[in-house]
Amino acid sequence: MRFGRTMERSGRGWCGESKNGCEMIELVLVDFDDTLVETAPAFQHAREALFAFLEAEGFSRDVSHKVHYDEVDPELLAAHGMGPFRMAPSFRETYVRLCRKKGRNPDPKVAERCAGLGRDFLGRPKVMDGSLESLLALSEKIPTAIFSQAAQTQYQLERIREAGVTEIIPLDRVRIVERKTPVTFQEVVHSFGIHEPSHATMIGNSLRSDINPALAVGARAILVEPYEMWHYDNVPPIHEDFLRFPTFSEAVSYLTE
Fold first, then answer.
1. The pTM is what?
2. What Å distances lie between residue 205 and 52, 221, 226, CA to CA?
3. Which terminus of the chain, N or C, has fewer Cβ atoms within 10 Å?
């Protein structure tokens, strides 16, 4: 089901107001992962490699998928937070639980191989085509900040630097929280001196982490449609009064032209 409104270049804004209403935007918060850089494909490729390896070890792909996504990953997400650091223990634990279900003793070498598939797989951030150029164009027209979530702040900050984002958005306009929620969203908005949430706009690819926290406090939101929805993000929006665009660049064009 599609939520929100896919905007055509009609010159119309939120709630039927003229596009000049965008002049009321005092702050735009931009997500990092899968909005400016590709992250989800690397996670997905690592998981597919795990499932293929486990299948060769005699475990059904369907069962491996269910154990990993429904049992292990939610637990490790709570323990290790967002980001890649949960992947190695999550992959190892998936193998261990599959062994238990089959009454097999886990092989330490196989367990370590599974962990290895979930370790150091991201590499240097892959910047999406046109995203940095669009970020610069946005920042020249409207006050802009980066709003990202990660359990390991320093690691995420290094990724943001490596992607070249801090050459456009200075470090004092980068905010990283462990989890994006209505509370953390409002705290970040207030940290920039914005006290009317409707004057702030969040741009991101996640319904759970980007769109809903903004909508919950009365801010505006723009969904950059994900190329593949992560199961964790597959939640309904609080309401449908937000915009959607296929790419970050198109969202920026709407706000700045």
1. 0.76
2. 28, 10, 6
3. N
